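B., you asked whether I could sanity-check this one before it goes into the benchmark set. Here's the sequence:
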Amino acid sequence: MKLLLIAFLVLVSNQVFAAGNGGHGSPMDLVWPAINFFALFVFLVIKLRKPLTETFNRQATDVQSTYEMAEKKDKEAQIKLETYQKKMSGFERERERVLSEATKEGEQVVSAIERETIETIEKLKVDADSKVAHERDQLTKQLNEGLVDEVIKLARQKIGGSKDNQSKATEKLVQNIGR
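And here's what the prediction gave me:
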């Protein structure tokens, strides 16, 4: 309380000194404001030293813990970065392996399709040849049957027209059967 009273008096006395001498001052006029400033400064230092010290210490502790947490996060980030880089390098190798396997498999499929196509063409050629041969045989057989029928028809006409030819034909047949 005494300190507050002294500070009040110092501040009030400053106004009294400033009112005198018609506004022209001397260096002595600055003595009381300096004393007031010094008193206020000392008062503030005494009253605020402990809270300021605690605040600065707390902030220093916060900064230190933030720095330590940042270092920890940096280490974690470095570990994750290394892990991802390893995965990426492994991914590139895996991608190349899959591509090469796919290329080999594609080539195998192409060669298998080519082989199957060639085999199918060969089978179709064989089937076509056998079908053509069968149809040729059928046509030859039909032609032969038609020719035999025509020969028989002409022979009947010739044999049926004369008695002499009928008797010769009968004799030849009997001779052929007897053999």
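One thing to flag: The mean pLDDT is 84. Otherwise nothing jumped out at me.
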